């Protein structure tokens, strides 16, 4: 074997050992509340080594296993409905009716958002209505407990571990309180942002409608929204709606309601 191959083999072996060591040290996921307290201690040690501050680590250690979050995560059946059934279940007619009223009563706010981000009122209002009933149903779960539980749970630990680190960063910054309330998966604010999206696209306190809608428009623009282009399926801006939520019935419902609110 040549010297070059020996070096390459040695480096590959070292990388494999490092990877296995990291996996061995990582906090282990679980499928029930039994291991949650031990997981918190292990994760807290890892997070502290990565620079997470004491305020956030203290908040993490105060979290509880969120059984309601796990139950909700296992029973998301509405996304398997037909489009008509999904829209009826979500109250699409009511969202459109109230959305048209809000478009007129808050015209200055929506005009400002459209001027800055290029997103018209319709899809923003449809998202607002769909996510929280225009702010009336923002959830009453402890945000940090929900996200920590899902980061511990073995179903999707990688996704929610990233969300947990983002939540801890926001707590360290003072941008979120450890007692922040949200929905079952840790979504917060009037249009239901996850922590990573708050970091990337948030424009202020998301419990304030103007900030939440601006943040939503900022998200859509960052995902390719082009001012003046259409947002129905097959049109240029529909891809940005797809980025907001992966469920096809949700995407189509937003496009339909948005068009009706915008009067197209």
Which structural traits does this protein have?
264 residues, mainly alpha, two-stranded antiparallel ribbon, 63% helix, 2% strand, globular
Spatial strand order of the main sheet? 1-2
Q: Work out the strand percent.
A: under 5%
- Uncertain runs: 5-11, 14-24
Global mean pLDDT: 91
Q: From the alpha-carbon coordinates, what is the Rg to the nearest angstrom? A: 22 Å
Describe the global form: globular
Helical residues, percent:
55-70%
Give a count of the beta strands, DSSP E runs of length 2 or more.
2
Q: Structural class given helices, strands, pairing? A: mainly alpha
Helices and strands, in order, run as: HHHHHHHHEHHEHHHH
Determine the number of helices (DSSP H or I, runs of at least 4 residues): 14
Q: Give the biggest sheet.
A: 2 strands, antiparallel
| N- to C-terminal distance | 71 Å
Provide a descriptive summary of the structure in words:
It contains 14 helices and two strands. By secondary structure, the chain is mostly helical. A two-stranded antiparallel ribbon has the order 1-2. Helix 2 packs antiparallel against helix 3, helix 6 crosses helix 8 and helix 7 runs parallel beside helix 12. The longest helix is centred in the N-terminal third of the chain and has 23 residues. The radius of gyration is 22 Å and the shape is globular.
Task: Reconstruct the topology from this structure.
Blueprint lengths: L2 H23 L10 H14 L4 H8 L5 H7 L9 H7 L2 H14 L1 H11 L3 H12 L8 E2 H10 L4 H17 L7 E2 L12 H7 L7 H14 L15 H7 L3 H15 L2
Antiparallel strand pairs: 1-2
Helix pairs in contact: 2-3, 3-10, 6-8, 6-14, 7-12, 8-14, 9-10, 10-11, 11-12, 12-13, 13-14
């Amino acid at each position: 074997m040549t010297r070059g191959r020996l070096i390459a083999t040695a480096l590959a072996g070292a990388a494999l050992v490092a990877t296995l060591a990291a996996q061995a040290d990582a906090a282990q996921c679980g499928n029930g509340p039994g291991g949650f307290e031990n997981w918190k201690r292990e994760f807290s040690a890892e997070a502290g080594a990565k620079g997470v501050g004491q305020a956030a680590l203290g908040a993490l250690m105060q979290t509880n296993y969120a059984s309601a979050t796990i139950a909700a995560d296992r029973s998301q059946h509405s996304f398997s409905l037909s489009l008509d059934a999904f829209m009826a279940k979500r109250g699409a007619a009511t969202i459109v009716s109230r959305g048209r009223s809000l478009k007129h009563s808050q015209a200055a706010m929506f005009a400002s958002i459209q001027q800055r981000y290029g997103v018209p009122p319709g899809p923003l209002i449809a998202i607002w209505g769909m996510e929280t009933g225009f702010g009336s149903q923002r959830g009453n779960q402890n945000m940090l407990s929900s996200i920590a539980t899902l980061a511990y749970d073995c179903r999707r630990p990688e996704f929610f571990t990233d969300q947990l680190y983002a939540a801890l960063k926001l707590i360290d910054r003072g941008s979120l309180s450890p007692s922040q309330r949200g929905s079952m998966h840790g979504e917060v604010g009037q249009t239901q942002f996850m922590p990573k999206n708050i970091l990337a696209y948030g424009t202020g306190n998301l419990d304030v409608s103007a900030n939440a809608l601006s943040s939503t428009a900022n998200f859509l623009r960052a995902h390719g929204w082009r001012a003046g282009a259409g947002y129905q399926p097959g049109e240029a801006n529909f891809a940005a709606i797809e980025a907001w939520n992966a469920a096809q019935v949700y995407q189509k419902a937003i496009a339909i309601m948005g068009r009706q609110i915008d009067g197209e």
